[in-house]
Specification:
This protein is mainly beta and about 700 residues long. It has one domain: Beta Barrel (Maltoporin, Chain A). Helix content is about 5%, strand content about 55%. It has four helices and 43 strands. The strands form nine sheets. It has a 22-stranded antiparallel barrel. It has a five-stranded mixed beta sheet with strand order 3-8-9-6-7. β6 and β7 (about 120) form a beta hairpin.
């Protein structure tokens, strides 16, 4: 199907969806006033310069930069945020060293929440393309009061651009190296006196920066990503507002990322697939309540279908001759998740209002099934025995979660403010596999207490928090019964921070010190169930005794002139795990995986009144462990250079981009196990990040 026909079909489907009755939707736009950034992921919508918490906001300019296609392209701007590879796009994230590493094994209760316009895609971050996205907020630290068990380490909130009713549109095109090309279109129109609709669709393709020498192809790791979105808003007045978003994301990517010699040249004879097709809808409403209070109502539903398949031996018959060695793996994951939230809140603290409150209830219904298939053959010409395996299994997981939460804010003497937020949550889960039925139930509580003082010298805050994460099951049917269940985890956090902007907005600064203590932490570990069979190398979740994460996050943005801007962000982290037991033996304390001890992001930007602009980004991170103890393999520290240049006017924009301009070789994931006959010695296998790439982006507004 051509791109034009595909775009027309998707937009038509989205328009048809609005023929159905609309129930409710959203309160306020992301940008409440020109130049004022509003954090929408906190319990109360708060101006960014007054938020008493560590947060990074990636704005529209950053997210719509030339060549930016996915959240992965902007993540380096957020120190103390990392992701684990082993997929075509990031699915799982680590904030301050807390987060999962693998994309399939483990009950779907991630440590880092991931929301897209109110739709819960936690653990499914692959859908985070940047097309027509207006803002991404990264809240670092436990968000127990805001989002409960799915935000132990932090919360990432993606907000699309709100409609303006301007009867205008935009078309864009990208052409780049590695066979990259794409096109997108957006149209914004008024649908009534107080309502507006924004429609958009985009498709982008790439060869995927790998070459399969055995098959003679450059596209076995290719990307084919389509995003379509419709957002409708009705704003009658400050007390009657509705916001509806419909999202369809179809990432039909191939997967051929690992090579036997750890290069970007692969030898697999059966390349895999890493695909996700997801459709979601969120409906949010702001309605008047008793007195000055307001009701905020929200509902969302997602339906996601994922396929992850790979060549289990990463080679072909010639690679392993004279041995016969050939394995494949495929997992199909289907997830449906429905969430409801209702909250009643008073007006926020003002000069004449000394007390504010909110109360609410939240419910989630999650259903997930995984269908796994793996098999293969191994034969040694010296011995007559032939080893074969053929495994097929299905597991089903469901969880009903209900929470009640509240927050009170009070003005104190000398300009200080206090905020107390609490959340109580109960999760009842069911796991069914061919030979196992488990029904774990968890009841947990968390929250925060914050003292803050906004003033002429910036906002100063001191916060104590408790986050939590439910226990659960390891859904993989391959696991023995003894490894199926794991217990809940909790974290206690202390944070002191300061944030200030100059009156003329020429500079902004922030510094945050944090200390996190984890109890019964859930760690990823692994075991090879059958020697010589790579498909039985499985990952699962277990509990360790404790963890201690502490560090510093600081940033500075300065505009020495109206045309120049410089920025520096730095994250320092020491994340240690203790009490990990393997085969009855306590292992030594060691850094957590995917928790580099330092990360930085710097930029220098120039904007000329005539429309010419340029930007340089220099980012980097320290080495980090790939897995939990006792695995000792680490990445190497690296830094990346990105360049942008272009010209923009009111109607036209043209931009050039180069990412990884120095063509650095760096790793995003690593595994250590035996995969090469005949002795199957343990070896580190790594997935490399993308090499140097460049291109041009054109945009026309009408």
């Amino acid at each position: 199907m051509s791109l034009f026909r595909l775009s027309r079909a998707i937009v038509g489907a989205l328009l048809s969806a609005f023929a159905a009755p609309i129930v409710a939707a959203n309160p306020t736009p992301v940008l409440a006033a020109e130049g004022e950034v509003i954090i929408v992921a906190s319990l109360r919508r708060t101006p960014a310069n007054k938020l008493a918490a560590s947060a990074v906001v990636l704005d529209q300019t950053t997210l719509q930069a030339p060549g930016a296609q996915h959240f992965a392209d902007a993540m380096a701007q957020v120190p103390n945020l990392n992701f684990a590879g082993a997929s075509s796009r990031p699915r799982y994230f680590q904030v301050r060293g807390i987060g999962e590493l693998e994309q399939y094994e483990g009950a779907p209760n991630p440590s880092v929440g991931f929301l897209v316009d109110g739709m819960d895609f936690s653990g499914l971050g692959m859908v985070a393309t940047l097309f027509d996205v207006g803002q991404i907020e990264v809240l670092r630290g436990p968000q127990g009061a805001r989002y409960g068990a799915n935000a132990l380490g932090g919360l990432i909130n993606v907000s699309s651009r709100a409609p303006e009713g301007s009867d205008s549109g935009e078309v864009s095109a990208t052409l780049g190296t590695a066979g990259t090309y794409g096109a997108g279109a957006v149209y914004d129109l008024a649908t009534g006196a107080n309502s507006a609709l924004r429609l958009g669709v985009q498709q982008q393709r790439s060869d995927g920066f790998r070459r399969n020498a055995f098959l003679g192809r450059n596209d076995t790791n290719g990307r084919n990503e389509t995003t379509a979105r419709a957002r409708w808003q009705w704003n009658y007045d400050d007390e009657h507002q509705v916001d509806v978003t419909v999202l369809h994301a179809d990432l039909d990517n191939r997967y051929d990322a690992f090579a036997i010699d750890n290069t970007r040249t692969t030898l697999s004879d059966k390349p895999g697939r890493d695909a996700q097709r997801a459709t979601g809808i969120s409906v949010r409403a702001l309605l008047p309540g008793p007195g000055e209070a307001k009701w905020s109502l929200a509902a969302a539903h997602i339906d996601s279908h994922s396929v992850h398949a790979y060549d289990g031996d990463w080679g072909n018959a010639s690679s392993w001759a004279p041995y016969t060695y050939d394995y494949t793996y495929q997992a199909n994951r289907d997830r449906q998740n429905t969430t409801f939230e209702a909250r009643l809140e008073s007006p926020a603290l003002l000069d004449d209002r000394r007390f504010a409150w909110l109360v609410g209830a939240w419910h989630s219904q999650l259903r997930e099934s995984i269908r796994e298939r793996s098999g293969g053959i191994y034969a040694d010409p010296v011995y007559p025995d032939v080893f074969t395996s053929d495994f097929a299994g299905t597991s089903r997981y469901s969880a009903n979660t209900t929470a009640v939460f509240g927050q009170v804010d009070a003005a104190l003497p000398a300009g200080w403010q206090a905020s107390l937020g609490l959340r109580h949550e109960r999760r009842a889960a069911d796991f069914v596999a061919s030979d196992t039925t488990l029904s774990p139930t968890n009841t947990q509580s968390g929250g925060h207490f914050t003292l803050s003082r906004p003033g002429d010298y910036g906002t100063l805050w001191l916060s104590a928090s408790r986050g939590y994460k439910a226990g659960g099951v390891n859904p993989s049917p391959q696991l023995p019964a003894r490894l199926r269940e794991f217990g809940p985890e909790s974290v206690r956090g202390l944070e002191i921070g300061w944030r200030r902007s100059s009156e003329d907005e020429r500079w902004q600064a922030e510094a945050v010190l944090f200390d996190l203590r984890r109890q019964h932490l859930q760690v990823r570990t692994n075991e090879q169930l059958v020697a010589g069979d790579p498909n039985t190398f499985v990952f699962f979740t277990d509990n360790a005794a404790s963890g201690h994460h502490r560090g510093l996050e600081t940033s500075l943005r300065w505009r020495p002139t109206t045309e120049l801007e410089a920025g520096l962000s730095l994250g320092l982290l020491r994340a240690e795990l203790a009490g990990v037991v393997r085969d009855g033996t306590a292992l030594p304390t060691r850094d957590a995986p995917h928790a580099p001890r330092w990360q930085f992001a710097t930029h220098l930007a120039w904007q000329n009144p005539a429309g010419f602009h340029a930007r340089l980004d220099f980012t980097g991170m320290d080495a980090f462990y790939f897995g939990n103890v006792p695995e000792h393999f680490r990445s190497h520290a690296y830094s990346l250079l990105g360049l942008q240049a272009g010209w923009r006017s009111e109607k036209l924009e043209a931009g050039l981009y180069v990412r990884n301009a120095l063509n650095r070789q760096y790793t995003v994931r690593g595994f250590s196990f035996g995969n090469e006959p005949p002795d199957f010695a343990e070896k580190l296998y790594t997935q490399l990040g993308d090499p140097r790439e460049g291109g041009v982006t054109l945009r026309w507004r009408f």
